[in-house]
Amino acid sequence: MVEIQPLDIADPIRTQAILRRYGFQFKKSLGQNFLTNKAVLNGILDAADLQPTDLVVEIGPGIGSLTEQLARRVKQVVAVEIDERLLPILADTLAPYNNIEVVHQDILKTSLAELTANYPDHGAIKVVANLPYYITTPIMFSLINGEVQPDVLVLMMQKEVAQRITANSGNKHYGSLSIDVQTQMTAEIAQIVPRTSFVPQPNVDSAVLVLQRYQHSPYQIDHPEMFSTIVKSSFQQRRKSLQNNLANLFGKDKREQITQIITELDLPAQVRAEQLPIQKFIDLSNACFTTFASKRSK
């Protein structure tokens, strides 16, 4: 007799069967949307460039659709789930795999160091996540700036947020979020994901964002506090010129010095923040530090 293999967890038929069996009700407060599009799932796997030695941390495994596929390809998966109701479901759906650890935690209250401590013998650390829209950026930055820094992040998020992160100067989506991420990692959108790919359907489309840590960063930021302050202030009122935003930051009485800095950087007098590439912001912060901060400290 031929043994019939069960459908993958991500198959819409099996997904619905699992949800019915457990009577699972989605919580809007947790931003729960389960992926049921196999093409999108395969795109996520391709984007992560998975290797047999990889250690993958998955955030928000849901019922295990992506977790199952990861476990088939890598050495170890650590899946972090905040919803206690999903733990027995995951214990059931992922029972055939011995390389998955499901951790009941809030990812914002833990660290990759804790999650990976039990698995020292691995290759790259990669994070794969279908992030709740309402806490996308806090989770992303906690991962980028944590004690243990992953080599690659593959994150499903709202399309508009992904567009802001990947935008370059001159693009309407370009802003402080673009710069905060791109000074630390390369950022590209692997695919746009229609809302019909999820159960239940969200109100917006999503995107798969791939962040990869620089081996050799193209950016050297000598004065990170000044740089961060200037970037945030420059985009605070997007329609205002860079000169006006800097005058609001340093004081109206410093307008003449600000004008001189902008001229020396070969920037148009009425240039706006969205027109400045990242390196120009670094040059600007260096010049402002020399003109304002260093003089104030003497």
From TrEMBL:
Q: Which residues form the Ribosomal RNA adenine methylase transferase N-terminal domain?
A: 40-215
Keyword Cytoplasm: yes or no? yes
The cross-references to SMART domains, in alphabetical order and at most eight, read: rADc
Family matches, as InterPro entries: KsgA/Erm, rRNA_Ade_diMease-like_C, rRNA_Ade_Mease_Trfase_CS, rRNA_Ade_methylase_Trfase_N, rRNA_adenine_dimethylase, SAM-dependent_MTases_sf
Q: Could you say which EC number(s) this protein's record lists?
A: 2.1.1.182
Question: Known CDD domains for this protein?
Answer: AdoMet_MTases
Residues folding into a coiled coil are none
Where does this polypeptide localize? Answer: Cytoplasm
Report keywords, A-Z.
Cytoplasm, Methyltransferase, RNA-binding, rRNA processing, S-adenosyl-L-methionine, Transferase
Alphabetically, the GO molecular function entries are:
16S rRNA (adenine(1518)-N(6)/adenine(1519)-N(6))-dimethyltransferase activity; 23S rRNA (adenine(2085)-N(6))-dimethyltransferase activity; RNA binding
Q: What is the protein's major site of localization?
A: cytoplasm
Q: Where does S-adenosyl-L-methionine bind?
A: N33, L35, G60, E81, D106, N130
What reaction gets catalysed by this protein?
adenosine(1518)/adenosine(1519) in 16S rRNA + 4 S-adenosyl-L-methionine = N(6)-dimethyladenosine(1518)/N(6)-dimethyladenosine(1519) in 16S rRNA + 4 S-adenosyl-L-homocysteine + 4 H(+); adenosine(2085) in 23S rRNA + 2 S-adenosyl-L-methionine = N(6)-dimethyladenosine(2085) in 23S rRNA + 2 S-adenosyl-L-homocysteine + 2 H(+)
Q: Name one GO cellular component term.
A: cytosol
Please give the family membership noted in the entry.
Answer: Belongs to the class I-like SAM-binding methyltransferase superfamily. rRNA adenine N(6)-methyltransferase family. RsmA subfamily.
Q: What does this protein do?
A: Specifically dimethylates two adjacent adenosines (A1518 and A1519) in the loop of a conserved hairpin near the 3'-end of 16S rRNA in the 30S particle. May play a critical role in biogenesis of 30S subunits.
What's the name of the protein? Ribosomal RNA small subunit methyltransferase A
Gene that produces this protein: rsmA
